[in-house]
Amino acid sequence: MNPSNTASSPSRLSLFWHKWRFHLNVLLLLIPLGFMPKYFSEAALFRGDTGLGEREIGEVQVGPWSLRLAEFRNEAPRPDGPAGHMKHFNAALYQRCIGEVKATYLRIGKPRSLRAAGVIFFGSPYRMGALLPVPQKTPLDAELWITLEGWDGSMHQAAIPLSQASPATIAWLKTQGAQP
Amino acid sequence: MSKKSRSKLWFLVHSWLALPIWFFVLIVCVTGTLAVVSQEIVWLANPDMRASKPSDDAPLLSYDQVIAAIKQAQPLTQVLSIARPDESHFALEAKVTYPDGRPDTVYVNPYSGVIQGSAPAFNFRGFTRALHGWWLVPFTNGYSWGWYLVSLLGLPLLASLVTGLVVYKRFWKGFFRPTLRIRHGARIFWGDFHRLSGIWSIWFIAVISITGTWFLVEAVLSDNQISISSAPVIPVVARESVPLSTDGLAPQQLSLDRAIEIAQQRIPGLDASFVSLPGNAYSHLEIGGRGWYPLMFQTATINPYNGDVAASRLLSDRTPLEFVTESMRPLHTGDFGGLWIKLIWFFFGLVLSMMVLSGLLIWTKRTALATANAFKRSQKPPREARITQALQPSVHRESSEGSV
Fold first, then answer.
1. Strand order in the sheet with A119-120
2. pLDDT (tens digit per residue) in B25-75
3. Alpha-carbon distance A110 to A142, whole Å?
4. Is the distance from CB of B352 to CB of B29 less than 8 angstroms?
5. Does B23 contact chain A (CB < 8 Å)?
6. A89: which strand partners?
7. Which CATH class is domain A55-175?
8. Closest by CA position to B204, among listed B108, B72, B344, B57
9. Which of A56, B58, B109, B361 has the highest Cβ tally under 10 A?
């Protein structure tokens, strides 16, 4: 306990250490302090202060209907356990088509049928979200297909280049060794 | 090893468990204590959150009436879910989305249906929980490392309880003869305080440390993709059972009150405390609430077009293991029996915080004393030192007892 007993000529450093060693853990408070700006920017993102997401992709016309699409986070797909990497997109239907659109889907590559239209959007038509799986081997020139299904049974599709939908995903695919 | 040196060892283990990180432990205790009553603190600060009764005999509105009231006040606002907090003095919380794409939580009066206000931009409840639960470290891939940092404290806390009871010989006597000596100096006072609050908090420290350790286990399981859940994966509403419409517009869905009736037929005694509207045309309506066992929710998942119960999750559907693990969180937070339970958790949370502080104070006082004694011994001739020792019987009885 007493530094003078343990060391014959204690250095200033060891004196400092013995005096303050049990108070150094106050420095652990720096962790939440450091993460606080991140916490509040995340809260603002979920509150919709930045709109639909961090990066608006813009309006996409799908047959007679149209929607706005956004990347929730302007970043690479996030790993999600065995499900692979997931990319979160948000979308909003235009007011005039809300009553007519039954479901909105998202898929990389053209769907073969309505039953394989991809992931379905959840949430209110003003702000709905979908987690799109992005395989690591996705080609860089892949297209993002948006499928809208109407209550009348109709189906309309549109595609935008993935590079336009999410440059961050393309950058990530390049690091995964994807071929153009 | 002699009995004396063994107890000294236990004592050393006890004193070193929290000491090097005492401030971290203290802040985790304090933020946890605040988190228990965070909802109540917001209630005090924000009148919008209160459910004032227009008259003494005003009946509660049904969920359908609440939706109708919101629609009338804000025709374009979309309602996603409505939750009725446990305590009746809280307004309903409805999750909504506005036409501009902004999500919001609004407080709705459960008697009049009036939208009293929006949740403030700074979510105090969310913030204290995030600070206490994961030290604000974001979740990016599985559990955040802040979660591990905090939940790891469950282990030293449990060890503190066990070693504390070992070194405090015949602690049960403290229940019958409570001692809190105020006039014998700070060292004696904090020692008595630490022991007295310790024995009355045995149950609480056990609950918090075991449930806290469970949070660690939960994170380890989840990050290793190990699931102990027996809950079935509920398939989406079949394409065939979603009716087509001839006019091209969405078909009528089941009313919420009818859906609650169906749920109550399936789950007798269900008090529907939340409803979650379908997230899209192929998803279900979910209704849930507590039953006879207040620590768990029971839910019914209902097809919104034909009223079929697609799935239900009752108390009896849980495995015995799930009964234990699912009870861990409410036991940790004290959120299972209304305000009084929360106040008890809050009080013992304060006591636990004070125990961390008093443990530190005892340690610093004793170290200061030990240093002073060592200093005296080295300054004075041995014989005189022995006399000094003999003149301070109370001090030495305390430290040789080694039972702080």
1. A119-120, A101-108, A143-150, A155-161
2. 999 999 999 999 999 999 999 999 999 988 888 999 999 999 999 999 999
3. 10
4. yes
5. yes
6. A71, A130
7. mainly beta
8. B344
9. B109
B315 and chain A in contact, CB less than 8 A = no
Strand partners, A43: none
Rounded to 5°, angle at Cα A162 from A159 and A163:
130
Residue to test with chain B: of A56, A102, A122, A156, most B Cβ within 10 A: A102
Q: What ipTM did this prediction achieve?
A: 0.88
If you ran DSSP here, which 8-state letter would residue A28 be given?
Answer: G
pLDDT tens per residue across span A62-88: 999 999 999 999 999 999 888 899 999
**Cα B367–chain centre separation:** 35
Nearest to B248 by CA among A120, A156, A115: A156
- Domain borders along chain A are 1-49, 55-175
In this complex, which of B138, B279, B371 lies closest to A2 when CB atoms are compared? B371
Question: H or E element: which one contains B219?
Answer: helix B202-223
- Where exactly are the structural domains of chain B? 1-46+126-229+339-404
Q: Which residues pair with B299 in a beta bridge?
A: B288, B313
Query: Which of B305, B307, B308, B309 lies closest to B251, judged by CA?
Result: B305
Are residues B102 and A53 in contact, defined by beta-carbon separation less than 8 angstroms?
no
- Tell me how far apart the alpha carbons of residues B304 and A12 are, in angstroms, rounded to a whole number: 73
Q: How far apart are CA B249 and CA A97, in angstroms?
A: 10
Alpha carbons B402 and B404: distance in angstroms, whole number? 6
- Can you spell out the DSSP letters for B151-169? HTTHHHHHHHHHHHHHHST
β-pairing, A143-150 vs A127-133, is: unpaired
Q: Coil, helix or strand for B223?
A: helix
Cα distances (Å, whole numbers) of residue B316 to B228, B230, B267: 16, 11, 11
Q: How confident is the model at residue B380 (pLDDT cuts 50, 70, 90)?
A: low
Dihedral in degrees, nearest 10, Cα atoms A32, A33, A38, A44: 100
Contact state of A48 with B101 under an 8 Å Cβ cutoff = yes
Angle between helices B382-391 and B339-379 (to 10 degrees): 150
Q: What is the pLDDT of residues B152-209, one digit of tens each?
A: 999 999 999 999 999 988 889 889 988 899 898 888 999 999 999 999 999 999 999 9
Locate the chain A residue with the closest alpha carbon to B96. Answer: A124
For chain B, the maximum distance between any two Cα atoms, rounded to a whole number of angstroms, is 107
For residue B103, what pLDDT band results from cuts at 50, 70 and 90?
A: very high
A126: distance to nearest CA of chain B, Å? 5
Question: CB of A138 within 8 A of CB of A179?
Answer: no
For tokens 């340690």, what's the residue? B363
Strands (E), B245-321: 271-276, 285-290, 297-302, 309-313
Pairing of strands A85-93, A101-108: unpaired
Measure the CA–CA gap between B116 and B107, rounded to whole angstroms. 5
